[in-house]
């Protein structure tokens, strides 16, 4: 790794996991361009468009003169039975959660090669490893992200680029909090029972992960001790997938 100050692009950085990652990297001495469609971030843009993704990469390189790491994190959720799942929500989720990471990798690739030790760390989910009912689009997209980083790892190895997908179980974020009503409807439960009986039910450890814990994992993967991790999901799922 170069001793120079490194630069990272973090998407979905207005709140939750993305905000925690950006804050951690800045504390660790990184230059960080935060990207979201809303909120107090360095660049507001729509990552559901090709222009939004190419513009984000261009803005990071223009601002810092280099780009050493890309952390695609932006996403949202929709919970519905398959026969009721809106087709437009499927399109929107796949666009933001799967196509955007691909586009960011495509546009950033020359910069990551130039870095000499580029890192691509996608924030996937335990739903990139397992499935849950009523989340067809989200599960499909996150499985796709895991496949994407495997391919990127193989293509990037000769250039010193590593690619991983961090796969946490439920994290204490607005994304999780916003699911409660939809989960209650889909499962036929009162909202106050959703956390224990739906959200935490598959986990061996019955607690939400904190955003700072995910940020610490990303910081590890971006650091010198994370060099051996590539082409694989990094699972932090409280024992969910052990069942």
Report on this structure.
By secondary structure, this protein is of the alpha/beta class. It has a single domain (7-171, 209-236), classed as NAD(P)-binding Rossmann-like Domain (Rossmann fold, 3-Layer(aba) Sandwich), CATH 3.40.50. Helices cover 44% and strands 14% of the residues. The chain contains 8 helices and 7 strands. It has a 7-stranded parallel β-sheet with strand order 3-2-1-4-5-6-7, sandwiched between helices. Helix 1 packs across helix 8 (211-222), helix 2 (50-64) packs parallel to helix 3 and helix 3 runs parallel beside helix 4 (136-156). The longest helix is centred in the middle third of the chain and has 29 residues, at 87-115. It is globular and about 55 Å long. The termini are far apart. The model has no long low-confidence stretch (mean pLDDT 95).
């Amino acid at each position: 790794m170069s001793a120079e100050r490194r630069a990272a692009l973090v998407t979905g950085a207005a709140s939750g996991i993305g905000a925690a990652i950006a804050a951690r990297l800045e504390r660790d001495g990184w230059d960080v361009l935060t990207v979201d469609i809303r909120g107090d971030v360095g660049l507001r843009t729509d990552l559901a468009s090709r222009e939004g993704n190419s513009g984000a990469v261009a803005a990071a390189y223009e601002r810092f003169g280099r780009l050493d790491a890309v952390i695609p994190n932006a996403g949202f959720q929709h919970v519905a039975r398959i026969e009721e799942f809106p087709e437009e929500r499927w399109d929107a989720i796949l666009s933001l959660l799967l196509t955007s990471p691909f586009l960011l990798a495509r546009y950033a690739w020359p910069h990551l090669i130039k870095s000499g030790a580029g890192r691509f760390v996608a924030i996937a989910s335990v739903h990139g490893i397992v499935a849950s009912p009523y989340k067809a689009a989200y599960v499909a997209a996150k499985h796709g992200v895991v496949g994407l980083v495997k391919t990127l790892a193989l293509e990037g190895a000769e250039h010193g680029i590593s690619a991983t997908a961090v796969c946490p179980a439920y994290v204490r974020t607005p994304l999780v909090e916003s699911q409660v009503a939809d989960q209650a409807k889909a499962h036929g439960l009162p909202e106050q029972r959703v956390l224990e009986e739906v959200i935490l039910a598959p986990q061996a450890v019955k607690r939400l992960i904190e955003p700072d814990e995910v940020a610490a994992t990303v910081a590890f993967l971006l650091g010198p001790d994370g060099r051996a991790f590539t082409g694989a999901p990094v699972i932090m799922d409280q024992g969910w997938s052990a069942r």
